[in-house]
Each structure stands twice: as C-alpha cells, then as structure tokens.
User: What shape does this take?
Amino acid sequence: MKVSELGERALIARISKLLGKQGNNVIVGAGEDDCAVLDTGGEEYILATTDMLHRKTDFPPEMTGWQIGWMSVAVNLSDLASKGAEPLGVLMAMGIPPDSEIGFVEEIAKGMDDCASRFGMQVIGGDTDSHEELTMAGTALGLVKKELLIRRSGARVGDLVCVTGHLGTAGAALLALNKKIPVGEEILNALFEPFPRINEGIALAKSRAVTSMMDISDGLALSLHDLSRASRVGFRIYENKLPVLPGVKRLFEGEELLDAVVYTGGDFELLFTVAKDKIEKARKACPLTVIGEVVGSGVFIERAGGLEELEARGYEHFGKG
Assistant: This one.
C-alpha cells in the first residue's frame, strides 16, 4: 500500500504505534492530540508541537513573504491555543531555494518575528538549509498548569458544541482564489494571516467549563470526527447556527457555501465542548457560538432538508482530503 492510498491521519496512527512512549514524563505522546505533553515534576506541563508548511501546498502565490512568515508561526501557536497553553517560544527551520531573493527571506523572518511578538514570545532558534521548494517547519513550546490542561478527549453526551470566531472565511478565500473571484481584505487575511486563538484558549482553560477542545485548521468536519474518536461520542450540529460572515454568504451559497464552512480548512478557530451548566462561564471567558450538542455516536449536521451524516472530509495531505 502506498502513502497516497492510506491518508495522513491513518499514516500518523501507524507511525505513532511504532514510536510508543518512553519514560514516565510523557503524558500525551506522538499522534494522540494537538500537542505532546511532558511532565517535568512541577506544577505545569510543558507542551510541544510541530508543523511543516510548503510553498506549493500551503502558500498561495498571492501571499507575501511577511504573510508566509506569520502563518508559519501561527499554525504552531494554534495547537498551543487548543490546550489553553501560554507560549514559551518557537523554533523555525527554513528550507530555502538558493535562487530566493534576500529581501524575500528577510520578509519571511519579519513575519515570523511579528507573529511571535504579538503573542508575547520570540523565535528562539532554528535552522536553514537549501531546498528545491520553500519549506517552513516550526516547533512551538508552551506551558499550562496541570489542572487546566484540555485534551481532545473529555466530551460527554449532553455537552454543548461551540466555536470561536467565524467559520468558512479562509475556505471562502481559497475557493475564491481558485475561481478567480475578487474578494475583500477581511476574507483574504483570514487565509493569509490566520490569527491563533491563544488568548481565548487560555481564558477558556481558566474558566474550567471546557470538557474537550482542538483547533479546526483542517476543517470543521474533520475536526469533529477527530474529537468524536478521542472522546468516543458523537456530534449533532446545526447548519443555521454556524457563524459565517455576511461577505462569505454573498460569495457562495448552497453546497459551495457548505464546502467552505464545513469541509475546507484554514480557519484557525477553536472547536470545543462545554457542560451545559457551565456555558455562561465559557461565555465570560471569550466570545463563542453554540453550534450543536454532543450525542451518543455518529457525526451529523441538521439542514433544511433533514439530518445528514457529516463526512470525515477536510484538509489532509497525501490526497485523502
């Protein structure tokens, strides 16, 4: 079997089984959650996460060098946000084509620094080498108090399903670019300059109202299925409750709109579940939208035509998304 036939998530699961856990300090190991979690004996866990981005698959040609640098840091910070973690710093490795302009590389570095600085940390190191294709690999480190760690597992039947921000904005920008449809800066920036929900993640963790959480950069549908597997529950969401910008609704409608909002990745929002009796605590922590509820099994979306199964489809490498 080839990797292209297996898909990204199945490949990660197979690799994770081979790696195993070494040592009692590994609380969450490879492939188990958005971040690895290490216990060094203090009151806090150390969190580590890594992401790799490429010119052809992750950076549309319209992106500036600054935006490439910003996104390369932001994608790692989004994983820390889903754990309610305070960022410590980020390491960035850059594979740079030799014919790249020095000014372009400097723009990337400035974007990296601006994103890190925006969230109170810095790029603390990394590596550079020669690549045929621009490749950015980041590793972010964070801290969270042990009693505040939120995992993908923990959702319970009856909990409310919530999200931060708006859905489908980045997806609409990507679809519009592919279709050569002009779009405004607000929508384009959701794709080119994603804003990780670090502050919201920290506040939600402190509220102690959240039972499970992850980021939805791979798309809402795929993320719901990830949470479903981790928590061993199901979800029922409502199409008419999904928070979508009016500008996105003006661009697309029907199945195209659903694709942008539910199946296309790129939104760096948080998806989380909250116990019903603690929803007001969560609302005080940050703006949120309730989009559904936790059920016993299956992942469904209620639309005008009735209840439909929500496919496990979204952004995946190796041709499965």
